[in-house]
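User: tokens in, sequence out, please.
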């Protein structure tokens, strides 16, 4: 028996916000009351001045398993997830080999279950080997447990194939998610096209590389009537295009990463490979646009795009190093910063971190409710902590936030009725 005492609970789905105690018996929430008397031999978790929220759901992570487990694996990725307050993650299929066969989908699910720290769900590739030519066997992959389809890391450049993919995924009750980038416009760019790229002499990557693909996908979605999800949206114009498509009634959804909500291309000034990411960090106007779009619902949810890379890979020249940064442990402090700056309230934060992404992938959102298994996160919104090699639980430590202090720390994460993380 566990009693979580004196926490400030927030559950948007059940319209609950306030100070409550929670009693958990055999993993199941059996009482939520203003004050619950402790029993003999029951564990008390003191949540005074902490927030108790349904745990978070990240629909875009790279756990590099199978094949690149020197960067991350399903165990270390799960550790980072629960330390970030997440209990559901969707792994990207850009592994080695590509997740384009049912047996590989089952591998990810089984390993995730064996680790048992959180719900690890796979997405599958849209095209075989992510080569952009031949569609995968989507129905078989869905049956094996793939929650959606994406060639993430790469766009689907061929519009006819994208249209077929949308139609096929939509017809089996799933959807495609696109890494929107016109590679011909990207032209091997490294930094967002603008002053910083010019001053540093880095190959520029213009935002229209993203915008044109977002527009194409929105148009295809309108024409086919099928859903499409925009991965890691980052530019102002892309946000405006999604707003237009939604107004047209298109089944378009979009996610934004914490780093695109928080960091600008200024991070690149020391030619830091840890600040190289796809899409690139942009400027303040873009950040503002994504923040307002998240608060107004144009952007549906936050997804970290947690993209671990090994130290030796990030030691390469900035032109050559792989793009990406780890993110699972920083989403909460970054979102809390937006709450403090009044872009969002706490309820909206929980919606974009938990409720909305759950609905997007068709799973039951975590709820703090009598009869439910305990699946929530207790965090201290004011605790400050330093991002460093020790506090990052991922195998890889690639983030421009290294050495910086963040405010907001996960203290406990409950999954499947049990504590899976304790600070
Ligand atoms: C991702 C990766 O490393 O797999 N990198 C990144 O910069 N985001 C791929 C991706 O999500 O595009
Ligand atoms: Zn991507």
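Assistant: Sequence out:
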């Amino acid at each position: 028996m566990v009693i979580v005492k004196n926490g400030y609970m927030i559950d948007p789905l059940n319209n609950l916000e306030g100070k409550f105690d929670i009693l958990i018996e055999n993993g199941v929430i059996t009482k939520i009351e203003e004050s619950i008397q402790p029993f003999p031999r029951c564990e008390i978790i003191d949540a005074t001045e902490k927030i108790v929220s349904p745990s978070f759901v990240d629909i875009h992570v790279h756990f590099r398993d199978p094949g690149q487990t020197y960067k991350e694996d399903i165990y270390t990725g799960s550790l980072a997830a629960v330390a970030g307050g997440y209990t559901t993650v969707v792994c990207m299929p850009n592994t080695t080999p590509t997740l384009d066969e049912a047996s590989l989908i089952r591998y990810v699910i089984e390993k995730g279950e064996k680790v048992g720290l959180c719900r690890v769900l796979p997405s599958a590739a849209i095209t075989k080997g992510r080569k952009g030519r031949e569609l995968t066997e989507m129905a078989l992959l869905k049956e094996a447990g793939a929650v959606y389809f994406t060639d993430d890391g790469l766009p689907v450049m061929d519009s006819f194939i994208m249209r077929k993919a949308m139609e096929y995924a939509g017809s089996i009750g799933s959807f495609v998610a696109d890494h929107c980038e016109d590679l011909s416009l990207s032209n091997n760019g490294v930094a967002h096209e603008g002053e910083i790229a010019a001053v540093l002499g880095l190959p520029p990557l213009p935002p229209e590389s993203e915008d044109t693909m977002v527009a194409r996908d929105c148009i295809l979605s309108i024409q086919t009537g099928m859903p499409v999800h925009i991965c890691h949206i980052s530019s102002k114009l892309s946000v405006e295009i999604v707003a237009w498509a939604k107004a047209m009634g298109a089944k378009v959804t979009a996610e934004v990463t914490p780093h695109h909500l928080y960091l600008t291309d200024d991070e690149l000034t020391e030619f830091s490979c840890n600040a190289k990411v796809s899409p690139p960090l942009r400027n303040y106007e873009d950040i503002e646009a994504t923040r307002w779009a998240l608060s107004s619902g144009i952007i549906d949810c936050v997804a970290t795009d947690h993209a671990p890379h090994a130290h030796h890979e990030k030691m390469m020249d900035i032109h050559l190093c792989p793009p990406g940064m780890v993110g699972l442990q920083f989403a909460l402090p970054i979102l809390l910063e937006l709450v403090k700056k009044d872009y969002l309230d706490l309820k909206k934060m929980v919606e974009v971190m938990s409720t909305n992404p759950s609905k997007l992938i068709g799973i039951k959102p975590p709820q703090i409710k009598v009869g439910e298994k305990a699946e929530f996160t207790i965090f201290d919104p004011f605790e400050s902590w330093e991002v460093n090699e020790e506090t990052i639980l991922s195998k890889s430590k690639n983030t421009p936030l290294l050495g910086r202090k963040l405010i907001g720390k996960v203290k406990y994460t409950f999954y499947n009725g049990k504590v899976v993380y304790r600070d």
